[in-house]
Design a protein that fits this description.
The complex is a heterodimer of chains A (about 100) and B (about 325).
Chain A lengths: L1 E13 L3 H10 L6 E5 L1 E3 L2 E3 L8 E8 L1 H14 L6 E12 L4
Antiparallel strand pairs in A: 1-5, 1-6, 2-5, 3-4
Chain B lengths: L3 H14 L8 H23 L4 H28 L5 H12 L3 H13 L8 H8 L2 H11 L7 H9 L2 H20 L4 H6 L1 H51 L4 H12 L5 H9 L5 H34 L4
Helix pairs in contact in B: 1-11, 2-9, 2-11, 3-4, 3-6, 3-7, 3-11, 4-7, 4-14, 5-11, 5-12, 5-14, 7-13, 8-13, 11-12, 11-14, 12-14
Classes of the chains: A alpha+beta (about 100), B mainly alpha (about 325).
């Protein structure tokens, strides 16, 4: 089993932007992602998962450092001002079968 | 007599205001919405098959014009009296030019309980009314520099759950006809009011959550949230009369005009006019206008249509 150093980006934001956000992340180099419904409370108030205009998603992306930087920069420029959004970036190890 | 389904709505508001644990599970709420939209679409489709295109087409065009007009009429009031920013005013205006399927469903229950007939192809007009206000709202906020995400917004709106289910239901009803859909009647039509009651229970809980932000944004939104639907109902009633609809149909068009969106438009505005504060439009459309319409508005619009027909109507 090989270990690769990667970045794990976790983006918690409004479900309304999901389809656009995913398209943009893929064009910035993300090869995959995981989306889950989320609820919680932040600077823009409590958000519940059930009702579309008020629902949140959590997007997780594992990628290389260069892609992570590009995505972070893009989100900062295009989303931070007007959307409920938080972005976390962590160093992780990705485990891959030796054959890869 | 108050509609029993409205009592479920009131129960939701009270439970929400008291911060009860009560909540419809997300998947159940989704299912309830899907059932309602399909039931409304199917019913409309069956009726649509019986209509002449020459009758329906002018109604379709008139309704699209009405949606655009209502948004345009709301905008200067929101800018001038409400002192809202351009983006906020445009977004709220779009909400009020569009429609609420929930309000329509309650109106259907109100009229069927009283045995008042209305043009049953109304769901087609309902689906159409979702769209023009969104376009006007975006243009009001952005001008004609439509560079931004237009394709994504169009996709989001036209392929949204609401439009796909309503139009899909209409098409299925239209193709299958009355005999064809008899086999699915138990689920979609016999259960309609029970499903509507569950939907309204959750809507009450969601409405209660808006009341807090309403307190923050003040008197103007409350006044606007009541005055605007009354004005819109007048426009809808006049149009219904002009189109030669029945009393029930005129009242229904008045109700559609008076209702404000809280699902399709918020999603579209969030993407296309991000700087507009979503809390503002939702506090008005959901915190004020939806309860107003459901509890007292629908009977008022019925009275309005009945009187208008007495005074000027032929039918």
């Amino acid at each position: 089993m090989k270990r690769h150093n990667r970045k794990l980006l976790t983006v918690v934001t409004e479900a309304a932007v999901e389809s656009i956000l995913i398209k943009e992340m893929e064009s910035l180099g993300a090869l995959g992602y995981t989306i889950t419904s989320a609820r919680g409370k932040g600077r823009r108030g409590a958000r519940h998962a059930e009702w579309m205009p008020n629902s949140n998603i959590r997007v997780e992306i594992v990628c290389d450092a260069f892609t992570a930087e590009a995505i972070i920069k893009h989100l900062h420029e295009h989303y931070y001002a007007h959307y409920a959004m938080i972005v976390l970036c962590a160093d992780v190890e990705e485990l891959r079968p030796d054959s890869d | 007599m108050i509609e029993p389904v409205v009592l479920f709505f009131l129960m939701g508001i009270v439970a929400g205001a008291l911060r009860s644990e009560l909540r419809l599970p997300g998947a159940v709420y989704e299912f309830v919405i899907i059932l309602l939209l399909l039931a409304i679409g199917l019913k409309g489709g069956v009726e649509l098959a019986r209509q002449e295109l020459t009758v329906v087409l002018p109604q379709m065009l008139a309704v699209v014009a009405m949606g655009a007009f209502l948004s345009l009429a709301a905008f200067p009031v929101l800018r001038g009296l409400g002192r809202l920013s351009r983006a906020d005013a445009a977004s709220v205006a779009a909400h009020y030019g569009s429609v609420s399927v929930g309000t329509y469903a309650v109106a259907v229950s109100y009229y069927t309980n009283r045995g008042i007939p209305f043009e049953e192809h109304m769901p087609l007009l309902l689906a159409l009314l979702e769209i023009p206000a969104i376009v006007v709202g975006i243009v009001l906020a952005r001008g004609f520099s439509l560079g931004i995400r237009v394709k994504s917004v169009a996709r989001e709106v036209l392929l949204s759950k609401g439009i796909v289910l309503l139009l899909g239901g209409l098409l299925i009803g239209w193709i299958a006809g009355e005999d064809g859909i008899r086999s699915i009647t138990p689920l979609f039509f016999d259960l309609f009011k029970g499903v509507l009651a569950l939907f309204l229970l959750e809507m009450g809980l969601i409405t209660a959550a808006q009341l807090g932000s309403l307190r923050k944004h003040g008197v103007f939104l409350i006044l606007f949230g009541i005055a605007m639907p009354l004005f819109s109902a007048l426009v809808g009633t006049a149009l219904g009369l002009w189109l030669g609809l029945s009393v029930g149909g005129t009242a229904m068009l008045g109700t559609l005009a008076a209702s404000a969106s809280y699902i399709a438009v918020p999603a579209a505005m969030r993407i296309s006019v991000p700087e507009a504060n979503p809390t503002l439009s939702l506090a008005a459309s959901l915190g004020v206008t939806f309860p107003f319409n459901v509890i007292v508005g629908i009977p008022i619009y019925h009275g309005l249509a009945a009187n208008a027909h007495l005074l000027w109507g032929g039918a």
